[in-house]
Amino acid sequence: MKHISYSELKIWNDCPYKHKLIYIDKIKEFLGNEYTAFGKAIHDTCERILLSTEEVADLNVHFETRFLDELKKLEKNDVELRKDLIMDMRKQGNSLVEFILPEVKNYFNDYKVVSVEEKLYEDIEDHDYKFKGYIDLVLKTSDGKYHVID
User: What is the number of structural domains in the chain?
Assistant: First the structure.
């Protein structure tokens, strides 16, 4: 199915030649860094927290595992990593994990998780393409409102 994502459209808008290199010639430019590894691990842990009944200690293990997995991928691609930054991020991530669920409950009070990573494929008017995207989280609160978090 022919589609385009927001990030692909943004790259094309910024520089059509850069778009060609990345999406047509398939030349990868940015492999990631410590920050992207941390972000992926926290994002995945947030999803897990909202979809499970695991204890915080188990979620800390989950965060650690995901973070280290992402870092290993970067090392395989010869991305130079800063060990001191990684150690700080591990401490920060483990501290953050315990606050995620209480803060969601505090902010939304009574809620139900409707979906996570909701895939979108929407027609683009007057084109043979679809817009592709993902919504990180959709919650429904007791007042009947839906909250889209991305």
Answer: 1
Residue 100 covered by a domain:
yes
Residue position matching structure tokens 């999803």: 47
Average model confidence (pLDDT) across the chain: 92
> Cα dist. 106→30, 99, 101, 109 in Å?
37, 10, 8, 5
Q: Indicate whether 134 belongs to any domain.
A: no
pLDDT tens for 45-87 read: 999 999 887 777 899 999 999 999 999 999 998 899 999 999 9
Helix (H) / strand (E) containing 37:
helix 34-51
Secondary structure letter of residue 77 according to DSSP: T
CB 63 within 8 A of CB 94: yes
CA distance 146 to 111: 9
CB atoms under 10 Å from CB of 104, counted, come to 18
